[in-house]
Amino acid sequence: MAKLKFTLNRKGVGQLLKSDEMQEVLKEYATGIRNRCGDGYEQDTRVGKTRANAMVYANTYQAKADNLRNNTILKAVK
Q1: In the chain, N or C terminus with fewer CB closer than 10 Å?
Q2: pTM for the complete prediction?
Q3: pLDDT digits (tens, 9 = 90+) for 50-73
Q4: DSSP code of 39?
Q5: So which domain of life are we looking at (predicted)?
């Protein structure tokens, strides 16, 4: 069996992690998590220094209290 040498294109991987396609994938995951959390939760997608990021957060007082008591966001991720 032949040995293969694999060289990672770091610049290409960086572009992939920041791409619009990656942002859409993250947005889909964040939407699913937000839907499982219920009312009062919001989502956001941003491009950082090295990659795109998505987050789900409690936006209302009721949602913040619910998340503190029940770990709603953490449970919705699983």
Answers
A1: N
A2: 0.82
A3: 999 999 999 999 999 999 999 999
A4: T
A5: Bacteria
